[in-house]
Known about the structure:
mainly alpha
Amino acid sequence: MDPNMTQSSGGGAAAIIFGIIYLGVIVLMIAAMWKIFVKAGQPGWAAIVPIYNLVILLQITGKPIWWIVLFLIPLANLVIAILLYVALAQSFGKGVGFAVGMLLLPFVFFPMLGFGSAQYKGAAA
């Protein structure tokens, strides 16, 4: 008899806990993006529609719509995402440091932007 088969390692419980936390973070990010869109005068439901949410983000930040094509190019999409986050932070009166926070800890800084006191100032461009 295999000794590994007689004892439970608890891996299943850890996976369930991780899954619940992961789902919670996803719901938090959707709610934060929804609030950001509403603050900018856009429909909140657009936050959950793929590609269209990117179009709305580009409108909020004042960037051209053709930037969507740049998101399809490897490595260029990273640069464009950084520029978009900086412009989004500036559109809400925040600085480059806040944009760095949005890049490194999005599950903290996006809710801060959405649920915090930041007001939409207009397109950064």
